[in-house]
Write the structure tokens for this entry.
Amino acid sequence: MKLELRGITKRFGAVLANDHLDITIPPGTIHAIVGENGAGKSTAMRIAYGFYTADSGTILVDDRVRDIRAPRDAIALGIGMVHQHFMLVRPMTVTENIVLGAEPGSAIALDLRKAAASIRALSEEFRLAVDPGAIVEDLSVGQQQRVELLKALYRRAGLLILDEPTAVLTPQEVAEFFAILRRMRDQGKTVIIITHKLSEVLAISDNVTVMRDGRVVGNLKTNETTAAELARLMVGRDVLLRVDKPPARPGATVLTVRDLSIAGREGARRLDNVSFDVRSGEIVGVAGVEGNGQTELIEALAGLLPESQVSGAMSFRGRDIRQLNARRRRDAGIAHVPEDRHRRGLLLEFSLSENAILGVHYRAPVVSGPGGVLLDLPAIQRRADLVIREFDVRPPNSSLPARALSGGNQQKLIIGREFELPPVLLLISQPTRGVDIGAIEFIHRKIVALRDSGCAILLVSAELEEVTALADRLIVLHNGRIAGEVDPARATHEEIGLLMTGGRS
Amino acid sequence: MKVLRDLRFPLIAVLCAFLVGAVIVVLVGDSPIETYRLLLGSAFSWPDGIGYTLFFATPLIFTGLAVAVALRGGLLNIGAEGQLYVAAFATAWIGITFANLPAVLLVPMCCVGGVAAGALWAAIPGILKARFGSHEVINTIMLNFVAVALVGYLTQYHYRIPGDPIMETAPIGSGAHIARLGAFIPGLPARIPLNVAFLLALLACWLVYVLLWKTKWGYEIRATGQNPAAAEYGGVSIRKEIVLTMAISGALAGMVGINEVLGYRYRYYDGFSDNYGFTGIAVALLGRNHPFGVIVAALLFAVLQRGGVPVDAFTQLVSKDIVLILQALVILFVAAEAMFRRPVGSRQSAVGSGQVAGGKI
């Protein structure tokens, strides 16, 4: 199936999300669309799928102009889309999920047996091994993704749009997934993949479209380009893709964790007897597929979990911190950049100034006056301006609500705030999630600089590239246990990937 | 002047309500101009109109503030009605029990006692939420019934003067009376019950403003209301904030007792509240949960309340129910504000979700 966007323009209020896009996707190819946050790539694909309608421009499917006003229209034309966050009903079976909205049988009788048979046929054709009778919530993330693919194929999609499909997969699962995509291409399907991982673009795609600021800035053949060229097109300038960092010079042990366990619901352990140390002047990385205890580890260390859930020893500079609440731990010098900036890190409706003092809002120099009750607005302003300046937060207007910033700038604001503590130990989770390449480079440099100034850093990231590039030592978590510790400079992604899946692939 | 900008939509809502109200008056067969002239004219006449309007506004400022503070802290306090009953009774009880104390002691005691009673009453659902996670809406509503029954029982069986046909307590000591504003303002007769509590209401608005936006405590209340998970991350104890916010809210609702008992009837009169606690929700909504907005909104509702009487008396066909209709319309239009805004709002959210889905680079 061939898809062509001609002169597509879409405006959201004052923002020009798509500016006269011309993209041609030849039939039977894998086509990557890359670009920074807000470059408009998702908007373009949502227009193709009928989520949005373009203000102007035309969509051609197999060289015929088509009017796609709703996903319904796109599905009828054979366009399928798999979202970054799966749209599955978790307590239902694979079959039930796949037929949802396209139920076979008559109006009153649902013929699931027939559906299961055709799903089996499909999964054999594309070698997408999934049991049609399995309950979705029992499946691994990789298997759930296959269900999403089957859902699109079941609706006879000739063209599949995949939004950030590899974000939740281990390296092994990615390899398997790519094999599936290639098979689909070889069977004549067209695949569009929206991604931000340049290595994957180079590995899987035939052609690549680069977008920046709502415009197409490059249509390239993948085998004629390089990661450096793609990054330059995306950002508009040369970008350092590697992290330049001198060897670590670790000092005294700052954080000691011994036999840390965290109870989850129904007796299950979210974290199981984890022990490690972090010394000043080093970055200890924690790798692992998301949901293997990283979140709980960081929250336990930051004092955000109820004491009753946590057992084991945590000591900070030789002092037991189990009894200390989040405020006391911060006072002691433990800064925390949370994994989810919207949930934990920011007060979205509050101004940048007010956000710049979250966590230190109760103490000097932020408060003044009798009893330290009144907020010292000039002092808050100074602190906010400092964070904004040092961390290049844009736009540099401290009275804007945090909501008004892009993801990258929100993240810089949080990191800047935490760096101003100043930290003795930094707990930092997913530091560059949803952040532009340019800002990633900036944040990585800041983290390394903080390490070199003697701070101890515990870094959690789902991005294997990131955690191996930044960490001086790397712990791999699987199922709440430490599956192994490796030297990130030497270990290959395959070795680490094997540990991430607990030794089985 | 962000406050003024924020009040733009409520103002439009009020205008819309009056327009629709006019249509209703026409349908009934009367003159909207005449009706509104009576309504507004009587509310703004001197001294009775203005005096009574401000007097009616006083409890609404307190309850509006109470609801607004709670909402800023992320809590919906539907129990202001019960809180103000308990507080008013406590105020009267102190005024009766310690009737012989001099004013300089008795007035502060009555005020503090009443406010404390309101705070404690409101703290109960706060504690239940903080400790057990039970929803404050349910518990504040239920405690309204408990409060009304409790003070009714105490009045009926313990504090009513034997033989008095009215459900009211004995009078409070004269030392507990607070001055009516007629004592200070020439031309304002003393029979108009507008009293010092009105000034106290304005002061309370200013104090709440300072608390919310100029102190670390207010920062924590607002942070908890805006995003509890982020507030917790910032070292705020969410449980403590819930109880504290409810107590402050209840204290403000409890100040209604000062106006009612110390400044107006000089005794506890059962069932005195004209739904002040519930109207407070509308006042807070219309005032956009801002203390200064609350003053404006309370005045509007007081104008409607005051103006209803002459409308009833001097028009042929329109009854004072027009006031209820106008109140209801105002609330409807305020609640429908999202409708006026939707075109802008949906675009913004579309951009937002686009960015989220745009994902990582």
